[in-house]
Each structure stands twice: as C-alpha cells, then as structure tokens.
Amino acid sequence: MTEAIIAKGLVRRYGDISVVDGVDLELEPGTVTALLGPSGAGKSTLLRLIAGLETSDAGSVQRGDAVLSGPGQMIPAERRRIGLIFQDFALFPHLSALENVRFGLSDIARAEGDALAADWLVRVGLADRLQSYPHQLSGGEQQRVAIARALAPQPVAILMDEPFSGLDPSLRQDVREAAMGAIRGVGIPALIVSHDAVEAMMVADKIAIMHNGKIIQAGSPEALYTAPTSALAAAALGPVSETHGKLNGRGLVETPFGALSPPTTSSSNVYRIIVRPEAVEISDANGTSATLRSVRSLGHVYQFVVEADGTRITGWAGHPVTATPGDAVSVRLDETGCFVFPAE
Amino acid sequence: MRGFLAILGCSLTLTACGGGETETRSEPTGTINVYSARHYDSDRQMYDMFEDETGIRVRFREVSSNQLFETMKAEGDASPADVVIAADAGTLWKFQDAGLLRPVESEVLSAAIPEKFREPDGHWFGLAKRARIIVYDPERLSKEQVGEYGSLADGSLDGELCMRSSSNIYNLSLMSELIERWGEDEAGEWAKNVKANFSRDPRGGDTTQIESIAAGECAAALINHYYWVRMATSRSEDRRALAEATALAFPETGDGTHVNITGAGIAANAPNVEAAMAFLEFLVTQDGQELLVSETKEFPMVEGVPLPDGLDELPDFIESAVALTKLGENQATAQTLYDRADWN
Amino acid sequence: MIVPTGTDISTTNTAELHRRRLLASLKVGDVPVLVATALVGLPLITTVLTGIFVGGGPVWEHITETFFWTYLSGSLTVLIGVAVMILATAVPTAWLVTVYDFPGRAWFSWLLILPLAAPGYVVAFSYADLLGVVGPIQTAIRDATGLAARDYWFPDIRSGWGCAFVLAAALYPYVYLSARAAFTTQSICTLEAAQSLGASSWQRFTRVALPGARPAIAAGLALALMEAAADYGAADFLGVQTLTVGVFRAWSSFSDPAAGARLALILVALALTLLWIERTRRGEAGYQASSIRWRVLRRERLTGRRALAAAGFCGLVFTWGFAAPVLRLIWLAVEARASTPPLIEPLVNSFLLASLGATAAFVTALAFAVGAHRKRPIATLATWIAAGGYATPGAVLALGGLYALEILPFALTGVVALFVLVLVYVSRFTAAGTGPMEAALERAPPSLNAAARSLGAAPMRRLRDVDLPIILPGAAAAALVLFVETLKELPATLMLRPSNFDTLAVRAYAYASDERLETAALPSLVIVLCGLLPVILLSWRLSTGRVGGGSE
After folding, report:
1. Is the pLDDT of residue C378 over 80?
2. Chain C residues whose beta carbon lies within 8 Å of the beta carbon of residue B130
3. Please, are residues B132 and B87 in contact by the beta-carbon 8 Å criterion?
C-alpha cells in the first residue's frame, strides 16, 4: 500500500532566482532520505513543494502513478496526507497534547480518535503528559507530540524540516532515536532536511546533497562519503582540507604531501585535492617531509595541522603525536580519503 | 460595509435620511431640526413641550456657535437645519452675513419682540436678553469707581482689573457697541487704558473673573449678568459665598447697559419653514420664554413673563438703545482695536 | 497602553531574495488589505496634500502673521513641560517599584498605571477647578495666611506650563510602563554585577540601569509626546494656544480647513518624527531585553525613613495623576447632584458610535495583524500607514476627512458624516488594535498553518480551529482598547459627528466650556469609568505576564 514519492524536474522561482532548480528525487517506502546542504540551498522550499505548501513553476510530484502536482494540476497540502514535522514543533498552543494529536483524526469517531491519539502518545513515551499543554512541555516532549501528531493519521509519507535542531544537544539523541524508530516502524517514505552531515549519515538510508537549488549528488551515506563526485559534495559530508597538485611524468598527481592517482576520466594537468582528516597520516618514514604546525586533542582523536610548500592540511591521529609544533615530520596521504578533481 | 453603515446611519439620525422629504401644507407638521449653540437641559423640556403642543417633532444638534457655523456651511444645500439658535447678536450677524439665514415675517414675533432686538429684515429674532455688566469687590472699590464702562479706563483702577480674552464674542460685541457710542478713537483709547489696569493676563471665562475677584486677585471685571446669578443661586454654599463677596454695577449714564440677546433665525435652506416658524413663535409664548431662561438666568424678551429665580433681586437698569445689527458690523474693527491695545 | 508594535518581516538570508519573494507573493487575498490601507491612509494623505498644495490662502497668511509663533511656542512649552515632568516622575517611580520593597509597593505598581483611563481634557477640567483661584488649595492658602490672591504668587493652571502639568499627569504611565519593563527585564544581571563592583544604589541607578533603559524610556516618552501634541481638549479648555488648537480654529473660526491643513503639516512632521523615534528605540529596547536572560528579581527591602520616602513619592505621583483629579470630579458631581445632566442619551450615542468605530477599526486591525503575521508585504506598508494615523492628531485627520468631502460631491450630513467619522476613527486607532493582536499571533509560528494543512484541515477549519482560538485573547483586548479609545476621542468627534448626536465626551466638553464644570463632572467620570476597564485588563495581563513584549 505504501508507494514512492517521486519529484521530477521540480522548479520554483522567486522573481528570476530559481530557489529549486530542476530537482529529481525519489523517496522510497521504508527508506529515510536526508536532504543535506547549507542554508539557502533550497532544501526547505523543496520540502514545501513536495508537501504541497507551495506551487512549483515546473516539474511534477507524484505518488506512485498518481500526480500530486504537475502542469495544471495541484492537490492542496490538506488532501495529500503527507505528514510534516517542523524545527519549531508547530504545536497548537491552545490544544493539549492529546488534542494536538487528535487534530488530524477528525474523521474518526470521537472515542476511537481519542484512544488512537493516546496510543500514539504512549508510543512516543508521553503516557503521562496527555493533558499537558505545549507550554508545559519541554522541547523534547513537544517534538515527540509533533511526531505522534504527524504519524497518527497514517500519512503516506513524512517530511521533516530540521526536526531536531531546535533541541538541546543532550536531548537530541533520545528524541531522534524515538522519532526515527517510530517512523521506520510504519514503513512509509520519509524525508529529513538537515544541515548536519553527522545527523544525516546517522539517520538516513540515502542522502541527497543540495546546493544552489540543485541536487549535486545522491546515494547511500557510504557511497557519498567515499566517492564524492565533486569538491562540494565531499565537503558536505564532513570536515575537509584542500590542497593542489600537478600531473608528473609518471602519470601521477604530485601534491605537496605526496603523489596520488588522477581520476581515470580526466585529461587535465592541474588538480585540486580534497583531503579528509583521517586520510592524513604522520608516518615514520617513506613519507613526504612537512612541518607540524599544531596539535590538539579532540577527545577521541588528536587533530594536527601540517604544512608543506605553503599549504596547510588538517589530519586526525588515533594516538598521541610525539612531535611538537615546528618539528619536521614525515606525512603520507591515504588515497581512499583523498579526492582528486581536475581544476578548471 | 457601506450599506450597513448607511442603514445604521439612518437609524441613528433619522433626519439625514428621512427628514429631507418635505410637504407643504397650511398646518405645519413633520420634523424640524434645531441647530443650537446652547447646552441646557431645560431646552429639552422646551422641545418636548413644543412637540406635545404641535405634534411637530424636534431634532436638535447642540454645538458651539463656531462649529454650528462651519457645520452648516459644510452641509450646504443638503443641510437639514431649520432653526438656528445662538447667543449674541454678533454671532447671528455672522450667520446672516454668510447667507445661512433667510428673512421671514411674522406678526406674532413682531408683536412680542421690541424692534431693537430683531433684525429689520427678519433674519433673526432676539428671544432672551443678557446684560454685560461690571462685577467688583465692594470692600476694595466703591460703586462710583466702577459704575460705568468708561470708569474701567480710569488710572485709579491700576492693577485692579481681571478680563477674559478679547476674542470672546461678548467682549467683541461690547466693543462694537462702544465704537458706536464713542467713535473708533475713543473706544480704542478706552481699550488701551483698560488693558493698562489689568492685574493679570486675560484668562478663563466670565465665571473665572468673578472667582478672581472673590479670591482677591483683582477688584473689578466685565461679565454677563447670568454667570453671577448662577453662582448666587448655586446649591453649593461655597459658590454662593463667592458671589456674595462681590457686587454688581449696571452702567447707567450714556446709553446705559450693553444688552445682548440669545436669538434665533430660520435657516436659508430650511426644509420645513412653516414648522420652523411655529417653533419660533412658540418660543415667545409665556411657556417658551420661561423654559428658555429658567436655567440660563437670562432676562425673558417678552413683557410680563415672570423672571427666573435669582433675577428679581437684580436692580432695574437702563437698556442700551444701540441697534444690535451694529454689533456684527463693527466686529472686525472691534478686534483690531483690542489687538492694538495688546489685550489678548 | 497602546503601543504600536513593529513588524519585522525579515526571514530569509539575502535581502534580494527576500524582496523577490515578497513581490512574487502578492495575491488576490491582499486586495481587502490594500483597500483598507488606502482608507486608513486617506485622511492623513488628504491633509498632507491639501496642506502642501491648497493651504496658502489669505487665512494662512493671517495665521503666519498673527498666531503662528504663539501656536508654535504654545506647543513647544507644552511638549517640553510634559517631557520634563514625565521623566521626573515616571522613571523614579518605575525604578522604586522594580528594585525596592516598601509598604504599598505591590499596590503602587499597578495603581500608577490608572491615569491612562482619564483623557487629558477630563484631567484639565478637574485641575482647572482644583488649582483655580477659588479652588480648595488656593482657598486653603488664603485661609491659612489671611492673604488675598493678589498678595502671593501661585502657578497659573491656565497656561502652557499648566497644560503640561495636566497632560503629564494623564500621560506619564506610558513612560512608567516602558521604564518598568526595561528595568525588570534587562538590567538585573548587570545590576548585580555593578553591586559586586561596589556601586552604591544611586550609582547603580544612574550609571547602569538608566543608560540601559534609555531606549525604552525614549520610546515611551515618544508615545506620550505624540498624545500630548495631539491633545485638543485640555489645551483649548485651559486657553493654551497650541498647534492642534490652531488647526481646529483654522476650521472653526476662520472657515479655512486648507489653512488648517498647512498648519497641520508641522504636527504631522512632529508626529512622524516621534513615531520614528518610538519605532527605532523600541527595537533597540527589545533587542537588549531579549539578549539577556530573564531572572527573578530580589528586591531590596527599604525601612524607616527611606521606605516612607519611597511610598510617599509613589503616593504623590498617583495622587497627581489619578486620585486628586478623579476625587475632585466626584466631589463636584456629588455637589451638583440635583442638576444631574441627562446621561442616558449621550451614553447610548457614545456606545453606538464607539461600537461602530471600534468594529471598523477592529476588522481593519485584524486584517493588518493577520497579514503581517502571514508576512504579506502589503501588511508592512499597512502597519506603517496605520502607525502614521495613530501618531497624527484626531483634529488633523478630521480636517483631511472634511477636505475630502469638499472635493467630492458630498455634503457633511448624517450618513456621510458618520461614514467619515468612522473612517477617521479607523485611521486614528487601527494601530492601537494591531498591537495586542500581533502580540497574540507572535505565539503562533507560521508553521502552525502548514502543520494544520498537513493534517488535512481545510481553510475554514484552519480559521476556526487554529487562527481564531489563537488570536482570541489578543483580539478581545484589542476590541476593548479600540472601544474605549473611540469613546474618549474628542476633536474629530466634535468636528464630524452627525446632527443630533452628542457623545459623552462631546457633552462633557460642551458643559465645561460653558463654564459649568460641576455639570461636566458626571459625564467625565463615566468616561473615566469606561476607560478603567482596559487599563485594569492591561495591568492584570502585565502582572500575569503572558502578553507580547514580555514586560514583566
């Protein structure tokens, strides 16, 4: 009964700026898709287009074979049965937790609806807060109510706009687990908008990276992390440093920190290299000579900065770095964490 | 919205929507609109009595004469006003001068009202009389010192006079009469000398001047007689005591005491002239006269009408013979003379 | 009490994107707001255009030759006097009730707001009698000393400073409220820091609290001065020639509304300047307040002579603003009991007119507030136009209405007069209604509507089950405020009311200017009584602390 939500060629313009610029995206049943990107990338607008809160200028949104919006066609949000969860929770301030959840169950008999709503609140761990009003609930509790409210009417999909970023970091983990557990439990397509790469990788089966209104890469978290197709995509999933290199006589890209293989499809001579910190190693020998600039413990790793040829990159080490800043060290790059792109 | 307003407007102000339909019949009926510059509760009894006797409905609007004037001008041809009642011949002259009054003839009015108290062409008719007299502190001044308007200019009263603003119509009308009596030069000289005797800058109304004398701020002032009478007949013992601390002087020599009127005329665009005439004629009956002056403490216009409480104790006095029409004509000159004397 | 709140609609990151989004979002639903905006702006815009292009006739020349400097100096005296007296009373009382505890503090904290209930002209009636030459105070002086009035000096209530004294008494709560809110919300932590650095309580007041509260105080003072500049009744009754009185007279004595409109240009410029100050300072005050964590204040307990001085000062200010003028009116009304004026008819008229005016202003305010909440671009313009009307004296707006009629083929009779008067009320008071509504709507983020839609709620259900319940408390307050403001309004009502239609305010004013103060006392008291309703509601909401602006 659950079907995929499919966006094809969606465009949304404000004046002559395309905030969403030809997006294709498929949300599959039982799959959580994360939409990742900096603010202003058009993530929220894309979510609102799928939800039917805004009208697209081109392209379509379908549920299975049924068109939700397309040229000359627009099923309004209130008839799409797509659940929404917001950063600010958006609970109705004049209604109790139970009444909030009950709001979407208006076509069910009263007693039955109340029971169903209460059941959902129990499921998200709020058995004792049924009669509380939003201002009496903590942020985490409010978001749980919002999740129960969105899921209770058995939506065909669920869309979440930065759902956890309004929460205290100490609560975030719990609420996120409760929320994602409940959502996975119903097996519907789910979309979560986020600007937090760690969160996206933690909750999503699939990540779509959005930039300037376009989806620049989509795939499993692992695929995106290990094989980004652009510098932007690489940077989107975690901290990176950048260096540069030139093709040498042996067909390798020579960087200040060692040689790397060029991408097979490229014929360029000049390259930019995106380096993940875990790909930088301080080795005993065989490496390229560089100067250690700083070392700092982040708790689980030691973060260091090395410099060669006037370029600095950041690396992580699992064990204490014995050298002190200013010392010459030998550096090696692990190719799996370095991404070589032809420079323009 | 507008329709709703219109309906409500009609129900609030029947005059505006229904009053315009006039039928000419020999026996006056219907409704008249009285525009009055008076605000006395006894006037309502007067209107009620007229309604009872004639079956003509009275609708009235009470505002200051300046606003009455502006309102009638703004209303123009559509003005529902039938009768204008205002204090002071100078004011009535202003209405006449602006073409807001129509001349009418009535044997009843001609018989009841002495000639000098009505406009020769019948634009307006005096209905009650007020005397502008001198109030003084008998402990400080003798009656001889303040017996005449001219006495107030005497150097011996230096620092003894309180006056209200010269722009007040009562002072303007008095000056208009003095111009008629003495000529412009002498009247102007009088204003200068009176101003030189001020104990303080002009302030407040006629009542304020009586209070100032009672409190010893000054020793003489010009007032309309009824302000003193109202104070002397007040239910408040304190107020009565104030009046009792002062004495009145009615100028006797020359042309005697300046007498002004409360008067009425029929509006130029009166929708219901016959009924308006009936109303004016009612005002000179004994009942009309008694109600007209019962609260204001003016003198009734018609011979033989009993005086209201408090007036019988006033002395007989000589009424000025200067025609009231002169008051309006001299008004602009009067203000100029005051301005030259620097009497604000 | 009527604090037009600014509408900040900036949400997106780039201004350009923002602007385009606004442009792109103009909708059919904006048309009613657009029409209402035009109507609200009509009187003010007509006055300004008339003043600029038509007002220069012989009457204008006469005014500039004779009265202009009198009017200007009269207005300046009143405004300066009001500012000085308000700052000297409102700020110290706000400080005392906020940081100290002394006998009666809890009472004074809300009693000090009550003068908002009494319009300036009513306070003027009362003080003209109280401080007049035969009033109780001067009589007592004479009885005690045996002097006559000429032998001693006593300040003249019928003067520019006297008028300032009266208006400051009626208007100081604007500053008291904003100063108190500022002291409560913004300076607790800094005050404690100052204390730990060894600052005395006087230094804490002058060097820490006062500079911090300055934007809020300036905003409150700007509102009070707006009202003082707009006053017609008190100034005219006391014989003070101010610009507003001049505008009224240009119409009533010189029959030249256009010359009045030109004179009014100064008032409009003044009003807009004050509005600008209010808006910008209010913004600063809000920014500071929200950037500091709110803490429960531990009040310092005063004892002995200091407690007595604090209570005495608050008592004095309350007596000045409310107790003395109102008690004197009651005494006058009781003394005049047998000549009680007919009150039923003007009361009914007042209620009818106020209902009509308040309903129209309410609907407009609702449209503006919801529009602003939905971030419609037109609503920003609308809010500013409404604020402009609110800052402009009623007499000036009424002139605009009159002049519009002069151009259009309408005469000022019954229905037209009523329509124009209601229009002027809407123009003058809409901003007073949007404030409480916007405060209520601020509790509701825009995502609520999206949430309701995603839960299948159609437009009617969203209005019924979401928007209306949320706006209801604010709307009720707004309706009450609008009703009472309309009830108290004097100059525009004097100028524009239909025939045969006296309101309480008009009647009280007519009696008073007829030198029958004791007859004016009762209708004046009824006006004060009606005015007390929203003031008590306001102080209750402030003390329970669930209003927008988060004052206490």
Report:
1. no
2. none
3. no
Is-contact A150 A105, C-beta < 8 A?
no
Helix (H, G, I), strand (E, B) or coil at A242: strand
Query: Which residues, other chains included, contact C444 with Cβ-Cβ below 8 Å and sequence gap of 6+?
Result: A93, C373, C466, C467, C470
- C-interface mutation test, from A43, A49, A55, A103, most C Cβ less than 10 A away: A103
Residues 172-231, chain A: which have Cβ within 8 Å of C? Answer: none
From A243, A247, A241, select the one nearest A266 (Cα to Cα): A247
State the pLDDT confidence band at B9, using cuts at 50, 70 and 90. Answer: very low
The SS3 of residue B260 is strand
List chains adjacent to chain C, taking adjacency as at least 3 C-beta pairs closer than 8 Å. A, B
Percent of chain C with pLDDT over 70: 83
**B107 to chain C, minimum CA–CA distance in Å?**
30
> Rounded mean pLDDT of chain C?
81
Q: Which of C500, C501, C506 to mutate to test the interface with B (most CBs of B within 10 A)?
A: C500
DSSP annotation of B157 reads: G
Neighbouring CB atoms inside 10 A of B121's CB total 13
How crowded is the C-beta side of C59, counted as CA atoms within 13 Å?
20
pLDDT grade for B40, boundaries at 50, 70 and 90 = confident
pLDDT of B30 above 90: no
Pairing mode of beta strands A5-14, A58-63: antiparallel
In angstroms, rounded to a whole number, what is the distance separating the alpha carbons of residues C72 and C87?
22
Using the CB atoms, write b or e for C65-88: b if 16+ within 10 Å: eebbebbbebbebbbebbbebbbe
The answer to whether the Cα torsion of C61, C65, C69, C70 is positive or negative is negative
Q: Does ipTM surpass 0.85 in this model?
A: no
Chain B residue numbers touching C520 (CB-CB < 8 A): none
- Positive or negative, the CA dihedral B17, B20, B24, B25 is positive
Smallest CA–CA separation between C489 and chain B, in Å?
A: 16
Contact C344, C502 (CB under 8 A): no
Alpha-helical regions (H) of C374-503: 377-391, 394-407, 414-441, 447-454, 459-462, 468-488, 491-496
Whole-angstrom distance, CA of residue A331 vs CA of residue A289: 6
Residue from the list C450, C458, C461 with its beta carbon closest to the beta carbon of A84 = C450
Test B12 with C156 for CB contact under 8 angstroms. Answer: no
Contact A211, A232 (CB under 8 A): yes
CA–CA distance, C542 with C551 (Å, rounded to integer) = 6
What is the predicted pLDDT for the residue at A39? 84
CB within 8 Å of chain B, chain C residues 471-500: 494-495, 498-500
| The pLDDT value given to residue C414 | 66
Distance from CA of C441 to the nearest CA of A (A): 11
Nearest to A132 by CA among A118, A115, A151: A118
Q: Is A37 left (phi over 0), alpha (psi -120 to 50) or beta?
A: left
- Among the residues of C131-209, which ranges form H helices? 136-145, 160-186, 188-196, 201-203
Tokens representing C232 are 């017609």
Using a CB–CB cutoff of 8 Å, tell me whether A17 touches chain C. yes
* pLDDT over 90 (residue B92): yes
Residue B88 near residue B274 (C-beta atoms within 8 A): no
Side chain identity, residue B251: P
Beginning with the edge strand found earlier in the chain, give each strand of the sheet holding A17-27 in spatial order: A17-27, A5-14, A58-63, A66-70, A73-74
Choose the mutation target among C150, C352, C356, C506 for the interface with B, i.e. most B CBs under 10 Å. Answer: C150
pLDDT lower than 70: segments of chain A: 1, 344
Give the pLDDT score at C314. Answer: 96
pTM summary value: 0.73
